[in-house]
Amino acid sequence: MGRSHRSTTYEDLLVQGLSNKGEGVAKTPEGKVIFVAGTVPGDRIHCTTFKKRKGVFFARLNEVVVPSPHRIAPVCIHFGVCGGCKLQHMDYTAQLEHKQLEVLQNLKKIAGVTPAHTAPIVGAPNPYWYRNKMEYSFSNNRWLTAEEINTTATVSKNGLGFHKPGMWDKIVNIDRCHLQTDPANAIRNFIRAYAEKQQLAFFDPRAQKGFLRTLMLRNTADGKFMVLLQFYEEQEQARTALLDALVAEFPQITSLLYCINNKGNDTIYDHDIHCYHGAPYLNAQLENIQYKITAKSFFQTNYEQALALYTHTRSLAALKPTDVVYDLYTGTGSIALFLAAHCKKIVGVEAVEEAVVAARENAAQNNITNAVFESGNMRHCFNADFIARHGKADVVVTDPPRDGMHPKVVAQLLQLAPKKIVYVSCNSATQARDLALLKKDYHLKHAQAVDMFPQTHHIENIVLLEHQ
Predict the structure, then answer these.
(1) Is the whole model's pTM more than 0.90, yes or no?
(2) In 3-state terms, the chain is what percent helix, strand and coil (to 5)?
(3) Closest to 123 in 3D by CA, of 96, 157, 94
(4) How far apart are CA 106 and CA 209, in angstroms?
(5) What per-residue string of b and e applies to 263-283 under the rule 16 or more CB within 10 Å gives b?
(6) SS3 category, 2
(7) Which of 303, 380, 426, 448 sits in a 20 to 30 Å window from 460, CA-based?
(8) Number of C-beta neighbours around residue 247 at 10 A
């Protein structure tokens, strides 16, 4: 790859599909596979290769000679630079078709299974403005466009936005993002403008110095906002003035938080979060369940599609009042609490202790008494002692992170042998890998894809497994 690769230009190649990261996939007349970012299936293109990795060539797009019928104009001025919405140039119907195809191909090629029934993918009612959480970084050395580099005018190098793909120390300054509802853009732009005017130091990731480090925005479906500002160092007077300015400008902010983080990474989970204004949490609701969401809580970032995901999970589980249910990788218990009214008992397991505390609090505030939550590393705590304490599960729901389940967890599932497993996944490739291990004892009855993240290559998939 890289240094030893000799660039080759190809003309009039047909883009035939998409990779699992959203790049267009074309083939040369000799059968070489080429990934080309910024292309759409159906495009005819000219491109030039720049590297080779694991037998696949990567190329830069030179020209779209004949555009695909699925190609559309992206709505965002930052498209192609920030890397967040890789599919904005592809109409939404085509996005859904590709995602459905990717799920089925992974099940067939990786797991070697085909569902007895595949339901149509559940598309998002709102393919923009759907996220309820966004995270941004400050930088004193942001990514500059070619126009900014060549101008004779003075250009500020301060930025507040997203990391440039492949560049840990470069931030793309974002003026308007189309993923989170208003006033998210206004809040972010106000903070940046205020900081510039007051000459507050934006973070320097290389030198590890500065004042303003990161910004997180969360919102509820009814328009309330949580704002968390992460500062690299404490400057009480400057911090207080900024936070007061936010309170005065945006009455929608009902939870204004901050933390001081001078360690080497941005993660907040090992830091105290201070509540400056309002409550230290937001309340979200799905059906009749209220969820208290803190700055450290995991919660699905698309409320409408979270409801669809959980509703389909509940439908596939088809719980009976006598069922004992395990919810593996329960997080803050969002799925467990959604299912609790339909079974005898549900037991959630999660590695993050703070998430388990939040799950218990959410159960208490909803008067749910048949949900039990334990913390621990899944591959160690999900064992014979766990089963002896809680009783044998009739149904297991599992919603692991992108890496999927550890082989020891899969082995324990096979030994437990529940009647049904409902596997919710944000990565259909690792889901298929795990299904390849489970298929000797389980039949794949149903697959249901749900699009949580329009304009991106990500897709959630739910499968129902029944013991043979």
Answers:
(1) yes
(2) 25, 30, 40
(3) 96
(4) 44
(5) eeeeebeeeeeeebebeebbe
(6) helix
(7) 380
(8) 14
The dihedral formed by the CA atoms of 157, 159, 165 and 170, expressed in degrees to the nearest 10: 40
Which of 295, 285, 78, 307 has the alpha carbon at shortest distance from 179? 78
Q: What is the pLDDT of residue 10?
A: 96
In this predicted model, what pLDDT tens digit does every residue of 166-221 receive, in sequence order?
888 899 999 999 999 999 999 999 999 999 999 999 999 999 999 999 999 999 99
- Which residues on adjacent β-strands are paired with residue 44? 14, 66
Tokens 């942001």: give the residue: 142
Q: Are 377 and 386 in contact (CB under 8 A)?
A: no
- Please state, in angstroms and as integers, the Cα–Cα distance from residue 84 to each residue in 21, 64, 87, 446, 457, following that order: 11, 22, 9, 31, 10
pLDDT digit string (tens) for 284-296?
Answer: 999 999 999 999 8
d(CA 254, CA 421): 40
**End-to-end CA gap in the chain:** 46
Question: How far is 206 from 169, CA to CA, in rounded Å?
Answer: 7
Residue 460: its pLDDT value, please?
97
Ordered DSSP codes for 349-393: EES-HHHHHHHHHHHHHTT--SEEEEES-HHHHSSHHHHHHH---
Joined tokens for residue 328: 């593996």
Q: Is the peptide bond before 120 cis (omega within 30 degrees of 0)?
A: no
Catalytic residues: 426
Helix or strand (DSSP H, E) at 26: strand 24-27
Place of tokens 């990779």: 19
